[in-house]
Each structure stands twice: as structure tokens, then as C-alpha cells.
Amino acid sequence: MSSLKQFALAKDLVQDRVSRIRKTGIIVLHNVSFSLAATSLLFLIAFWLNNSISLSWFFLSMSVAFTLIPFLARKGYEKMSKLLLLAYVDIGILILSSVFGKEMFIQAFYIPASGLAILIFDHKNTNLRNIGIGFSVGCYLVLDYVIFDQIVLSAGEGAFLKWSILGAAFVTTWMTFNKFSDTKELAERQTEELLKETRELNKKLIQKKEQLEEKVDELKEAKAKVEEGSKAKSEFLTTMSHEIRTPMNAIIGMTNLLVKDNPREDQLEQLEILDFSAKTLLSLINDVLDFSKIESGKIEFEEVPFKLEDVLNSVIESFRFTASKKDVRLYIDMKDDLPDVLIGDPNRLTQIINNLVSNAVKFTEEGSVGVIVQLMEDKEPYQIKFSVCDTGIGISEEKKSEIFKSFTQERSDTSRVFGGTGLGLTISKKLVELQGGEIYLESKKGKGSTFFVEIPFDANPDENAQTTSFNQFSLPDSLNGATVMVVEDNAINQKVMMRFLDKWNIEAVVVGDGEEAVETLKEQYVNLILMDLQMPVMDGYEATRKIRKMSDKKKSSVPIVALTAAALKEVKEQVFASGMNDYLTKPFNPPELQKKLEFYILDKQ
């Protein structure tokens, strides 16, 4: 940047002398000099016609002098030029007054001559201004008290005065041309130096340009590596999500089935522990994946109607068993003025409240944990305030500002004693802020904490509108006899899905890969296909594309719901791009599966 500035300054040097001419004194000097040069030419012509040769030569020299004075000023000799101008003006007035006599009052022009000295010299050159004024006054005194009253020149004395004046004019001309020659050489040297400096600056600019191009190439390579790393990271997360969620789907699915098989009291307790542990592990997996998605800016939010009471009840009920073992009371306090149905992302709200309640239950050994919900603004968008209160260990003042940072917990041994990754609050804060809300806390060490979450929601005035359900777990009789194809290569997940569908009196057709699914559909029509994505022989994407190209319109338009273990944005985009209707994330929630089956089998028909 400094080289560019030097180059710009070097270019400005070329116009430096032009800027000098624009100064007020120089402008006056130019205007007056050229005007007086023209006036001297007029006197030259007049005296030449009157055969006054000596005066003609004098005004010729005056005209040349007035013409050369501006050029002298342009070469940097401003003060000398201004003094010469004043001197020639005063001498000219002196000569004209002597020729035409006292009666013509030409001597009165010494007054504007004094004003000219004031115009061309600014306040910084007061001494030169005074000299100019004094010279005009001196000439006036000489003219008025000496020449007019006392001096009578003989012919010889007149000739002497004439040649003296001519000699002075020639000396002035010689000085002007001599100075012009000197300044010309100086200007040439400065031009050469300027050109040399410009060439050097051009070389530096070329070097800088080459360096900049190298940096651009390096940045392009770095960008390509970052994109490659991001792609590899995304592929890794997709693979790990699939590999971890697949067995988790079997664990949670089997646990749900066993809970619904009327187990004994002692078995129920064990199943609840198994269910809680599985969901805790799933929560950790979700935290890592969500943290990665938030970092890369790929988080998404739904805009669907849901019942706030159902969301809160589902969260509280999931911690009921753990809280009861510690004799910790769980409660919900919903104010009466809250809308029944909100529009937003119920899954993200569940995740936020779940993280806060999970921490509250985890760090509370006695007392209570509660969720208080109140309406802050009674107009759309409704500002809903959630307060998650506990009577647990609390948070120290110095840790309050750091508690929302990644991998941060209240004490260094918190993870070992209570468990957790330290990502829950970080993710919750990001999710709240991305929805236009805020999260903050109040806490006292040893007396508990209260986390406040404020999020704007729109409200659905139709209380009977279809909402996302969190508590339903029974299918209507009208689904009896429906046929669903399960495309899944994992034998355990096949059994889990078959158990669910069999329990709901739905006929299941199970195949192990995409190619088998396409061949089976050619022979047999089904009401819906649950399609796994990553399978041998033919994956779910390719199988879906082949199904959509079938000539049988009824079979080619069969609803296809993806069974995906990767809850990433890229995967969802590929799901819809391949022609699938919807997706279900493993491990699936039975009420969510119910909702998909009802919608695509009953509502679509």
C-alpha cells in the first residue's frame, strides 16, 4: 500500500507547478502582467506613430518584461517576479507622468499601484508588501517634488536617461532568460528523476502484483482444501451418524415395544433405565451433530403448528423416572393467557427445554425442578418466556459469563461427577439466538439457578388444526390391513420395524436392498415404502429414482419415506431430489412414524 501511495504522490508532482499558479497572488500577477504587456504595446504603437523612438523602445522593453514576468514566476521565482512587476509599473507611471506632465494626473495611478502590492503579497510576506508600497510612495515623491518642480533635463541628460532605461530593460530580459534556462535544466533533471522514480515504483507495483497473484493462488488452494475438508467432515459425520444411530434405533425401538407389552413392575424399572440411558446416549450424539451443523451454518428450523402443552409434557415426562429416584419434584406452570397452538419448530424447542431441564435435574439432589411459561407480548409475534428453575448446586458469579461457552462446565470435575459434554448450553444458546430470541440466567451458588429463554412465535387461531403430536401412540382402525414395504439391510432394524407394524395390524413386506425393492414393487403394490438410504447392491436414492420411472403410474407415485440415520441438511436435500416424499430420522419416535403413516396412507387416499 505504501508503494501505491508513493506512486500516487509521484504523479502529483507533475501537477505541482499548476497548483502554484492557482494561488491568489500568482493569479493577480498573471492577469496584471499580461494586461500591462498589452497596454505597453498600445503605447509603443502610439509613440512610434508620433516618431518618439526612444519612448517606443522603452515601451517595447516594458512589453517584453511584462510578458516574461509570469514565466519567471512559474519557474519558482514568485517573490522576485512580483517585485519586478511593481518596479516596472512604478517606473512606467513615472515615465508617462514625466512625458505628459503634471496636468494629466497620471501620478494618481500610484494609488492602485500600492493596492497591487497588497494584492500580490499575502500576510506571510508583509515586509515585501511594505517594500512595494514604499517604492510606489517613493516614486510619487520623486515625481511630484523633484521632476515636476526642479529638474530640467538637457538633450544629453535625456539621452543618458533613455539609454539607462533601455539598459535596465535589457538587463531584466537577460536575467529572465538566464533564469528560464536554469529552471529549464532544473525541470529536465526533476523530470528525469521523476521518470526514474516512476519506473522504480512500476517495478515495485509489478512485484506487488505478482506477490498478490501468488497470495490469491495460495488462497484458492487453501479454499479448495477447506472445502475438501468440509466435505470430508460432512461425509464422516454422515457415516458416523448412520453407524451410531442404526443400533440406537434397534435399542430404543425394542425398549418402546417392551414397555408396551405390559411388563412386570421390576421389569418396567429396568426398561425405564435402559430407555433413559439410550436416550441420553442419543442426546450426546445429537449434541455433537448439532454443534457441527451450527458451526457450518447448516441448521434449519421448521414452521409448523404445535401444542405448547404437549411439548412441555413430553420433556417433563422423559425425566419423571430420574427425578423420582432423587425425590425431586417436577412441575409445569403455564399461564392462562398463552395461545393453545403456536407456529414454529417444536423439535428445536423440545431440544432447548430438554437441555435446560436435563441440567436442572442433573444438578439438583433435593427440592424441585420446574418450567414456568408466560406471555410477554400479547401480539404477533408472541414473545414467550420460559423459566427453568431448580434448587440445585447453583452457579458461581465468575462462571456465569462462561457457562454458555463450548465444553464449559461449572467445575472442572463436573463431567466426571455428573456427566455431559458441556455442549448443551452452547447449542441451546445458538438455537435460541438463531430464532431471534435470547437466553440468560440468574443463579446463586448453593441455592439453585433459573434459566430464562425468550423466543418469538406466531400463533395458529385454529385450535383444531393438525399439530405435531408428542403423546399419541395408537393408530386408527382404518390403517388395519395396509401394506408397507420396509427396505432395510440391517436385520435387527428389520425386526424392530416388523414388530411395530405387526402391533399396529399393518402388513409388512421386508426386503434387504434397493434392487430387491424395485423388483418386489413390480410384482406387488404397497401403500407406502419405508426406504433406508445406505444399502449394498443399490442404495435408497437409486431405488427411488427407478421407482419414479415405472410405467405403472400407481406404483411410480407410491409414497416413499426415507429412513435416514444422518440428520444433515445435505442428506435431506438428496432425499427430496431423488423423488422421496418425506424422511424419518433414526432412531424414530413412534408417534412421528404414526403421523407419517396417517398422512401418506389415509390423508393422501
Helix content: 55-70%
**Biggest sheet: strands, sense, closure?**
7 strands, mixed
How far do the termini sit from each other?
70 Å
Q: Report the mean per-residue pLDDT as an integer.
A: 77
Poorly predicted tracts of residues: 1-11, 17-22, 407-420, 469-473
| C-alpha Rg (nearest Å) | 49 Å
What is the count of DSSP helices, taking H or I runs of 4+ residues? 21
Count of individual beta strands: 12
Proportion of residues in extended strands: 5-15%
Based on Cα principal axes, name the global outline: elongated
- What class, by secondary structure content? alpha/beta
Describe the structure.
- This protein is elongated.
- The longest helix is centred in the middle third of the chain and has 105 residues, at 155-259.
- Helices cover 61% and strands 13% of the residues.
- The strands form two sheets. Strands 1, 2, 3, 4, 5, 6 and 7 form a seven-stranded mixed β-sheet that branches. The chain has a five-stranded parallel β-sheet with strand order 9-8-10-11-12, with helices on both faces.
- The model is unreliable at 1-11, 17-22, 407-420 and 469-473 (pLDDT under 50).
- The protein has helices at residues 2-14, 16-21, 24-49, 53-74, 78-100, 110-120, 126-147, 155-259, 265-295, 308-318, 320-325, 346-362, 397-400, 414-418, 424-434, 491-503, 514-523, 540-548, 553-556, 569-577, 590-603, and strands at 304-307, 328-334, 341-344, 367-377, 382-390, 438-444, 448-459, 483-487, 507-511, 528-532, 560-564, 582-585.
- It has 605 residues and is an alpha/beta fold.
- The chain is built from 21 helices and twelve strands.
- It starts with a helix and ends with a helix.
- 30% of the residues are buried.
- A hairpin with a 4-residue loop joins strand 4 and strand 5.
